[in-house]
Design goal:
Strand content: 15-25%
Helix content: 25-40%
Oligomer: single chain
Radius of gyration: 28 Å
Mean pLDDT: 85
Amino acid sequence: MASYPSFYTLRLGKTSTSDISSIDALTPGVQKPPFELSVVCKQVPRTISAGGYALIWLGSDNSKGMATTWKQGFRAVARIESVDLGAGHNDDSTTRLSIGYVFEDSLTKTDLLEAAPAVYVRYSEMALFGMDDYANQTIRVVEHSTKSDIGALLLSCDITQPGCFKGIVDAYPELATIIAKEEETRGSSAGASRSKTALLDDAPINRNMIVHGAPGTGKSHYIEELRELYFDNDKVQRVTFYPNYSYTQFVGGYRPYSDINDDGRHEVYYKFVFGPFLDTYVAALKHPDQRYLLIIEEINRANAAAVFGDTFQLLDRGINGTSEYPVHVSYEMGNELFRQLHFTKAGETQYAGFTAEELKGECVESIALPPNMFIWATMNSADQGVFPIDTAFRRRWAFEYLSIDNSQEVVDIKVNLAAGHDVSWNALRTMLNDKLLALGINEDKQIGPFFIGNREYMNQLQADSRFNAVFKDKVITYLFNDVVRHCRLQFFTGATKPSSYSQVCADFDLMGERIFGDYDLSI
């Protein structure tokens, strides 16, 4: 890994609108002379000093998710010229910078991910640019690591806006070493020829992972984006848990079959059938040079401890990804594993994943998850009547939390209410969440950006003016029945009869967002 100078992210927001407008008006490319900028803010990292570099992000001028006149995103690269730190961490500090390079247009996380998905993982945990980063400090340190790589970020920028590598070097020749290294790896890192297996070897990720968050934060979409980066679709099994889902369905068990025997008579018999867990396990053993993924949607809607049964112990993984504690299996399961893992190669009988010493008769005695088998799941703790997940089960998983505002920019659209005016969906959603928070309702019951649907569906609602009906069917129904059932009078403060669902819906047709109080979000 290259030796990097100090880098920082600098997000300009609603207190810096004049600076944002000035930067947005600059001619793209190398700035000669550099554009001077002075930023006063609190909570500046105490390690910051002159000579470092700042990645300047144009943020929002409001806190309601409404659109801005400029495109929000990564817009310029600057050098830090001087810093006057306040006496304390929460005191005002002044940072003076000179902007040497400005991109043709602001680069969003979506722009960078779409242009170079195989590279994005290398800076996926970087402040501002990462997949799940929502801290609000103006200036933050870039802690360089395998998933916070400045060189990878600059490579993505050059793929998104070709030629910016050269421009940044022209402005800052001392960064040439970093950029030259990335140019050498462009063909392998960004090219389609690089396999997903090689990508995983370079950037290991969690083998047991649960993605959780409030409803509508895009948990399934997040997993699918990662799946596209790391796994071929034919190497993936998907299953959805539900209250009566069982160990037999998930792992495997005997099931009845019917057939016609040699005498032409109909007979019923039982055979051991694998569920998605063992199907994925067998495939991973047969092809140890490939990666296999089992995706579990809504893992807490079934009794996960009962569904996993004794295979729960296999989730304890060592550093190399193999289960630390093998689990003994029944004779019936072991016999079917023996049959499916037996194969002939070059005239020699072999058993995928096992040696002869590990087998007894025609039966596999115990199993352990191989390092190329991954299990990812989604969990929505806001659902009513779900099964709790105990501490012993939880500690065997890595948990990825998606914020209530995760990827909100993707569905920041204008929608029409039947009350006769347009509002920003994000502004409407943010207002509801603020009111829920004021009533002491936890974030896991608030409204995520994708609560109503994905980007395509939201655009369709916008085009055919059905948003009002869908909002009542999904959002008001959810809030009325599941979230504010004990405080409807305090939540629907503008409705004529807050305790009547039908009247709340009728009021919404006439009053729009005013059923929630003295609000006017018209745009």
